[in-house]
Specification:
This protein has 107 residues and is of the alpha+beta class. The chain has one domain: Nuclear Transport Factor 2, Chain: A (Roll), CATH 3.10.450. Helices cover 31% and strands 47% of the residues. A hairpin with a 7-residue loop joins strand 4 and strand 5. The longest helix has 15 residues.
Length: 107
């Protein structure tokens, strides 16, 4: 699967549980929308990611990447400690330059 380098960094860092590498894949002013909440900036994104990992113990497996409305949409198999695991979620990335500007996670 051919992913933008910043998106590949996101998934690689998540797999290694490397918060610093994951947050550096984002622009300083980036946002993440997940579970009805918006997290703005690298510090907030890092806190969201750490809390989510601790709560759900999620493992992400990218399955397919497409482009839609200017975003890179990655269908991802997510397994972990939550009802309905595993589930397939969409990770819609907006990239600006060499960093992620926005990420929206949905069903």
């Amino acid at each position: 699967m051919d992913l933008h380098p910043a998106i590949q960094t996101y998934f690689d860092a998540d797999r290694r549980r490397d918060r610093d590498a994951l947050t550096q894949a984002f622009r300083p002013d980036a946002t993440v929308a997940d579970e009805g909440r918006i997290h703005e900036g690298r510090d907030a994104i890092g806190a969201w990611w750490s809390e989510t990992k601790a709560q759900y113990e999620a493992v992400l497996e990218p399955q397919e990447a497409t482009r839609a409305d200017g975003a890179s949409v990655v269908r991802t198999r997510v397994s972990g400690n939550f009802p309905g695991s595993p589930a397939t979620l969409t990770f819609a990335f907006e990239v600006a330059g060499d960093r992620i500007k926005g990420l929206e996670i949905g069903a």
